[in-house]
Design goal:
Structural class: mainly alpha
Radius of gyration: 32 Å
Distance between the termini: 86 Å
Number of strands: 0
Helix content: 10-25%
Shape: elongated
Oligomer: single chain
């Protein structure tokens, strides 16, 4: 199986799976707004609240009396 070429310099282009060169578009018009993403993520995924451990303090032992 042919491995895609690695971009070591300007002379060796990076190729996709079909062997076509991948063009590097610095400005493709898509901007990532990290603050908006973080705010939306925090709204959709609130922190998980773990309740304190329930301690069962009831004595459920059966008292056995030994007859002599």
């Amino acid at each position: 199986m042919d491995q895609p070429e690695k971009a070591d310099g300007a002379d060796s282009p990076v190729l996709d799976d079909d062997g076509n060169p991948i063009e590097d578009d610095e400005d493709d018009g898509i901007k990532f707004d990290e603050e908006e993403f973080d705010a939306k993520f925090d709204d959709e995924n609130p922190p998980t609240e773990i309740p304190p451990e329930v301690v069962d303090d009831i004595d459920n032992d059966f008292n056995i009396e030994i007859d002599d």
